[in-house]
Amino acid sequence: MIHPTSPGTTGAGGSLRDRGVRTEPKYIRSYSNAVPAVEAPPARILLPIRELRKSDRASFISSILGGYGPFEDMIGMSRDGSAEFEALFQPGIWYLLRFLRIFGRAPLRAFVVVEADAVVGTTLLLPWPRSGYVLGVGVRPSHRRRGLAGRLVAHAEDVARDGGRTWAVLDVEEENLPAIALYRARNYTTIQRTVWWRSEAPTRIATTAQVQPLSGRAERRQASEWVARQAPSELTSKLPPTANRLTHLESLGQSPGSAREVWEAGPAGNPHGILSAIARGPTKPGILFIPAVGPDATRDEIVSLVQAGVGWLTGRGCAGVLVSVPDYMGPVASVLSDLGFSSQLTTLTMACPLPDGGAGRSPRGAVSGMNP
Ligand SMILES: CC(C)(COP(=O)(O)OP(=O)(O)OC[C@H]1O[C@@H](n2cnc3c(N)ncnc32)[C@H](O)[C@@H]1OP(=O)(O)O)[C@@H](O)C(=O)NCCC(=O)NCCS
Predict the structure, then answer these.
(1) Does ligand 1 have an atom closer than 6 angstroms to the CB of 146?
(2) What is the pLDDT of residue 35?
(3) Which residue from 84, 106, 278, 312 has the fewest beta carbons nearer than 10 Å?
(4) Residue 268's pLDDT is what?
């Protein structure tokens, strides 16, 4: 457990503290790249790292898809193959990203290692205000254990640091031992453990607690300020909630065409709990995120929040419902069990300090020379 202090829950609907359950995650399928017994790792290869080019499209996408694991299966990324990454190469997006990069403001950077014109390793970087979020780390099986992933991650960290960020953050499946070994070797430590729950058709429980949708920008900003006060500071200091993203994990579900809604339970402006939902079309499960519940949340309120999100996703024809819950929220886990959800897998949010990040530099990397 990462955060020993649970917000706990008491209140009009009865204490939930005693109902908190910790179920062991059930994995959809296990990793095929479990730590092998390697006596002497293969020799290092010094292939250069460079920014993704348009001509890399086919081998970049096949390299990325080759690294997909149980998490991508669970959230439905592999169902329509390369759609998420094809979007990156659409002329409008591609040239906008290039243009923004010149000014150090690109919201996404992509780095590759190429051998004989084919991409053999990838990593992506989302330069958020305080942290560089690293994702898409993958190396083709033929090129593993040669130091490529380590160098790719180091490169993404350097770009984040040069843009003024003081942390590098990423998420990894708890079962992915090779990747965790890689990140630990690079000084990353776990700052949050998140359990992902799934149900194809959640059951309904009668509840009287009211929840309100938060549709306006000001309401959502207020919600993000509330979450920032409730969630563990170890997380929010690196990944502050925003009106568009109450938890950084929402970014894994958001894509062009996705829809989002937010609800609060309890008194307006001083809620007891908040939930956000992302619908991603009929071929993928919708995702509910519970970034925080307050100490006064009742079981009824949690049930109502989840059911509001489930009803909204079902109305949009989503293929099942996933719920992302930090592991210290025992009362929420208990409610999800009662509603027929089962835990699927666990992810770790890991962070690494970037020494000298932010020293005299713009957090947005506004000096273009600093973001080559
Ligand atoms: C995880 C992955 C990216 C590692 O790539 P890689 O290029 O082989 O990693 P590196 O050679 O840079 O390894 C650096 C260090 O990480 C650790 N490591 C990497 N793979 C390991 C393994 N299979 N077993 C044990 N340690 C491992 C070691 O400490 C290694 O240093 P060493 O070789 O000096 O012992 C690669 O296995 C992969 O692409 N997996 C599938 C996609 C994936 O899981 N990506 C991570 C998503 S979060």
Answers:
(1) yes
(2) 54
(3) 84
(4) 84
